[in-house]
Specification:
Number of strands: 0
Helix content: 55-70%
Order of helices and strands: HHH
Distance between the termini: 26 Å
Structural class: mainly alpha
Shape: globular
Radius of gyration: 11 Å
Strand content: under 5%
Mean pLDDT: 79
Largest sheet: none
């Protein structure tokens, strides 16, 4: 398993830039939807 950690406070990257990069990397929207669900269910706001 590979893990990618992005801290937008340090990198200065916006949400749309992250999403675009993930789409380019993965190429499949379904995997990104699963990733978004996992992040939403894991983080506490």
């Amino acid at each position: 398993m590979r893990v990618l950690i992005v801290d937008p406070r340090i990198a200065g990257i916006s949400g749309d830039m992250v999403l675009s990069a993930l789409v380019d990397m993965v190429g499949v929207w379904e995997q990104l939807y699963r990733l978004a669900d996992t992040i939403e269910n894991t983080l506490s706001y």
